[in-house]
## 1
Amino acid sequence: MTPPDPIPARPGEHHFDPLAEESFTSSHELYKELRGRCPVAHSETYGGFWALFRHRDVVGVLQDAETFTTSVQNVVPKFAFTGRRPPLHLDPPEHTDYRRVINRFFTKGRMAALEPAVRGHVARLVAGLVAAGEADVGPAYAQTMPAHVFAEFFHLPLELTARIEQISAEYVRAIQLVDDDEVKRGSRLLYGIAADVIAARRAEGTDPDEDLTAALLAAGLPDDMVLGCVRQLLVTGMVAPSVFIGTMLAHLAEHEDLQALLRAEPDRIPAAVEEYLRLFTPYRGMSRTARRDVVIGGRLIREGEPIALVYTSANRDEEIFENGEEFVLDRPNRVPRSRSVRASTPVRGPARPHDAADDAGGAARPHARFRGLRRDPHGPVGGVGHPLGPDAVHPGLNARVPRPPLSCIARRYVVSAARAAEKVKAWTGSRVVGGVRSR
Ligand code: HEM
């Protein structure tokens, strides 16, 4: 039987409203429903865009750079264009020139070399929490720890990474609000910092084997693109980890049995991190643009039409992940995941399980010094149902000013990291405490 002709977007076709109000769980519920009813959905918002909700469709697009470009817009909605930033804004083969250099700094060996310094920072931060007796782990840890790590990784002073983190927060927040002027202002500041870092590396004659910026400079790549690349790394290196760590802590605070298990069997922590990445995908999604007419799920997507890839939905797709809405430690199929296809997320968890030698005095295993994370029983409990819905699973802990939820899913595709910032800050600030007492 001949398959029916693929159907282009009909005038006014609108399967979901990205501007609709959300609760903590509503977008997951909506995505689940759309995966079954309308996995290739169209929305009229933002001038019209497609959204893919199934794992196989998302992965199919990510694996086909010839048909789907990332250079037109990598988020929905398209926002102020503040310059091309490799590698995210490029397609292969141009993209590969940058990834080849960057990937050298994310090998297992490099991560292992970084690990003692990271453990040192973690131990110090945790010691501070423990000494305080009680702390809001959002700002005090999730938001702070990645700045320490990035300072080590990128060879920057901590004060500078803390400032970058703050500017990034404001920048991402402006993206969420689609505030073009603020986006450009934040981006200019970040470009200025990137230019200073590059100038310093040139002046110091830093060894390209030792430093990522120096390696980019030594690779014979165009100056403006190296600038864009460093500028991009400054933001990406801290936003997702802050979001992700905050989410894990929030979930752990709700699941004391899991805390106890991971404390007793720390070699299971990497598997838990993997599962957290699946369940609480820190970016709601990115986008691509069709380079030619293409058929997905019986729908005709026209050349030039933007396509939001909803990672959050793909990573819970029951076709791939049984009980996809649940946290399941040691899933048999941890590997098929959309985000790894292109992004090959550089840092996913501890480089290796903790060994006994790490255990001296608990200094290298700071989690061992926690009595536990718990929700603050005196904090207000919002009327939002389950606390680990999308507003908690996309916390960008970098926002400074709590504000009411933005009712804009598509913006969150973009920046889940950013937008969610204040959300989780508000939430963790009132309900999750950490480092309650040392043992
Ligand atoms: C929890 C940790 C992280 C997660 C979940 C994460 C996730 C992602 C995702 C989903 C993308 C977009 C892929 C796309 O749609 O094209 C991305 C891109 C990127 N991220 Fe991360 N990221 C994390 C941490 C980091 C860190 C620590 C760095 C750098 C120090 C980093 C650097 C990058 C870069 C350079 C890109 C662009 C990659 C490319 O276009 O090839 N990320 N990340």
## 2
Amino acid sequence: MRFQSTSQISILKNDFQLDYAVLQMGQNSIITKKICLLGNFSVGKTSMIARFVRHTFSEKYLTTVGVKIDSKPIELADGLTLKLIVWDIAGSDKYSGIDTTYITGSAGILFVVDGMRKETLDAIVGLRRCVNESVGDCAMVCAINKSDLKIKWEITRADIDGLIESGIPTFKTSAKTGENVEAAFASLAKLLIET
Ligand SMILES: Nc1nc2c(ncn2[C@@H]2O[C@H](COP(=O)(O)OP(=O)(O)OP(=O)(O)O)[C@@H](O)[C@H]2O)c(=O)[nH]1
Ligand SMILES: [Mg+2]
């Protein structure tokens, strides 16, 4: 697929049905991939995105309603740019579940857990099943968030090792300080371009 003008490219940016596209622009190529952040209420999904995309953080909790979409380009080697279309999906709990129409067409999922609430880690099992059923095989990474409050964490090293052994690269992150936020997204990005 070849695109000559920037207007054509911005049309493509808004076409969220398109999971994968390579835009040829002179010597440079852009790969576009959709990723979703999933996790229980208040684990820090929106804050992770704010840190990653805008380098900001707010203590204020404004729950996400429905879905919010951002994008961020990541420069890779040899003039290749990975454009991540980042879907911030409203938190779920064991009663509400997630709206699977939002995750359709995802190439990757970043699960977010609140280190202080063990039940938010337990929720990943159900969310993972849901992703497998509606998206199929898909790159997955987990962020155990709020590492700046580690003294209050319920989640243990053994819990994290269990996740890693189950095949999910896992990072201790803080959207507040920025610790490992780039690393978690970069790990997912790496999986996306490998698949
Ligand atoms: N201390 C600390 N607080 C955080 C961190 N990440 C998020 N928070 C706070 O946790 C609260 C919830 O953060 P959000 O990013 O809105 O959580 P969410 O997962 O998007 O929540 P929903 O949209 O309701 O699903 C806010 O008050 C944030 O300031 C973190 O790394 N450290
Ligand atoms: Mg949110």
